[in-house]
Amino acid sequence: MQKRFIDGILTILENFDFNTLEESAHSVYAISNNFELIYFNQAWFNFAKQNNGEPIISSKYKIGTNIFDGMTEIVSKYYFEKYQYILHTKKVWHHDYQCSSSNIYREYHQSVYPLKNNKGLVIINSLKVEKKIHDTYNTDYSYTQEDGFVVQCCNCRKTQRNSDKQIWDWVPAFVEKMPQNVSHSICPICFDYYYKKR
Question: What total of structural domains would you count in the chain?
Fold first, then answer.
């Protein structure tokens, strides 16, 4: 079994009850003030397993891994700015995002809590919406771009058409199993709604 927390985690999480985090049905993890993963609860791994993310998640995101290593540039920049702000102001921050599977639409609410000792952040991802997806697109469209990559939004997971780059389709087969030639980006809707500076 993968190590789920660093030595001394109880001291670092001093303003949280460790058992409460451990027993939460929500996916909970903590990062240090230099953004390295320092804690996961079991629900984090359960979610990954239920959504075909294992064993990749366990091998890619180990204790000590920088949280931004697994994000595209625009997403990592967004979260870096927000997490820096939280560490500086010591104010709780909330954010909604999508994380769907091939046939289930999911929207999550992320709550980020600064640790009182300023040693990092506790991040809790709570399910807001979950429903079956009925609106799917024909996978006969060609999605391979001129450079040989299939471009998928790393937020909503829709795929960009090669014939009309303004159209992003829900392709269940690509959500279920990403093509080997996938390249992640942000679709215009997700960029405007979730990441654009206001």
Answer: 2
